Amino acid sequence: MNFESISEAQALGLDPSHLVEISPGCLIHGAIEAPLSTLYDKCRADGCVLSVASGYRSFDRQLAIFNAKARGERAVLDDAGRPVEMSGLSEREQLFAILRFSALPGASRHHWGTDIDVYDAAAIEPDYRVRLTYDECAQGGVFGRLHQHLDSALTAGGGFYRPYDCDRGGVAPEPWHLSYGPLARRFEQVLTRDLLGDQLAVTDIELKSAILNHLDAIYARFVCLQKRDV
């Protein structure tokens, strides 16, 4: 499959020119629209309505999320879903606690339009607030049936996979997060450690000193994913 060239600005979430809108306010890379439609059809055949809770997220939006957590304006949670007491942590510890669930601006896969967070609209009432938690996706959870079907559908091919399928010591497992591998792999190649560092060096971001001092470890642990065949 051929794709257009990827710019550094697109890899960093600074250029949305490659995106299309699939629902009000929800953008994805134009090249994944067809394979996503195929995945929709597979899930619908099993009685599930695959819906996108989150697609593209800009650099500025990710920056706002990160800064709010670093300032204590937004809760930072541990693996058990409990608020982390940030005041007792070093800057490095604060940074790594945030990165467990929230990417650095410039380092989020949602910048590319290749990655989506999904849920089953057929499993909930209109007023249900989708939280995107592990419990929702597990067997017996509200979206457990969808994810059981996705286990088979993703294995059968089509390009989508779960980049955070298990705990590798960096980002926490996110079964709801799907990535279109054939295209995401190309964005991964563009998003180098130096490109990310140069952008963050000129960004008004909290914990900047800790970020730049530990960027090598951050890039290896939270940005680079274990190589997989997709």
Automatic annotation (TrEMBL):
Protein name according to UniProt: M15 family metallopeptidase
Pfam families for the chain: VanY
Location of the D-alanyl-D-alanine carboxypeptidase-like core domain: 31-181
Classification via SUPFAM superfamilies: Hedgehog/DD-peptidase (SSF55166)
Organism of provenance: Gilvimarinus algae
